[in-house]
């Protein structure tokens, strides 16, 4: 059976980035990300009402890691490791089938610099080689072409298009599901 239990939170590094655990000190940066309508345009989730809601969210992230339910990293530049600029991680882990859903977001000041691509590559490698996932999936809003292109760039293939399967803010929305199989299996 697949597990996400590590003795210590796995900090990942790339050429320019450090992927680290969420901390309560990240609350203001995460609040700013999750209330930024440019960032959240295609992320169909309710916006946090206040910083306390975000602190609770961070605590749930940390508990989710400790319980082995999810694994989410803060994206930071190596030269400013305490400054959160985005996040990447695994949610909705299906342990019985060795699957997890990946998600990511980045502050617009850092868009089009290859940062999400770099973070995604490292977290995918970790998911396949350290966690031993068989499949990584991604669920995107059908209008989010930038995310679609990012997934395709990293080898994901479209597995499904669900019609009006998600209800958000008074309307039913379509979803696209992408998947990536572990090349080592």
UniProtKB/TrEMBL annotation:
Q: Which domain of life is it from?
A: Bacteria
GO terms for molecular function, please?
Answer: acyltransferase activity
Keyword annotations from UniProtKB, A to Z = Acyltransferase, Transferase
What are its E.C. numbers?
2.3.-.-
Any Pfam family? Acetyltransf_3
Q: Which SUPFAM superfamilies does the UniProt entry name for this protein?
A: Acyl-CoA N-acyltransferases (Nat)
Q: Which InterPro entries match?
A: Acyl_CoA_acyltransferase, GNAT_dom, N-acetyltransferase
Q: Which residues form the N-acetyltransferase domain?
A: 17-174
PANTHER family, per database record: GNAT FAMILY, PUTATIVE (AFU_ORTHOLOGUE AFUA_3G00765)-RELATED-RELATED (PTHR43792), N-ACETYLTRANSFERASE DOMAIN-CONTAINING PROTEIN (PTHR43792:SF1)
Record's protein name:
GNAT family N-acetyltransferase
Provide the species name. Answer: Pedobacter vanadiisoli
């Amino acid at each position: 059976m697949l597990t996400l239990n590590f003795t210590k939170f796995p900090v990942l590094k790339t050429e320019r980035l450090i992927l680290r655990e969420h901390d309560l000190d990240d609350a203001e940066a995460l609040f700013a990300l999750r209330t930024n309508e440019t960032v959240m345009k295609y992320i169909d989730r309710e916006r946090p009402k206040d910083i306390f809601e975000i602190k609770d969210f961070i605590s749930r992230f940390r508990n989710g890691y400790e319980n082995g339910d999810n694994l989410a990293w803060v994206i930071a530049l190596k030269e400013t490791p305490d400054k959160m600029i985005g996040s990447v991680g695994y949610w909705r882990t299906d342990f019985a089938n060795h699957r997890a859903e990946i998600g990511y977001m980045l502050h617009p000041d850092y868009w089009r610099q290859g940062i999400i691509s770099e973070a995604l590559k490292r977290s995918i490698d970790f998911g396949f080689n350290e966690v031993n996932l068989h499949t990584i999936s991604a669920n995107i809003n059908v209008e989010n072409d930038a995310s679609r292109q990012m997934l395709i760039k990293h080898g994901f293939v479209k597995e499904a298009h669900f019609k009006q399967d998600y209800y958000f803010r008074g309307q039913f929305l379509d979803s696209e599901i992408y998947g990536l199989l572990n090349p080592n299996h």
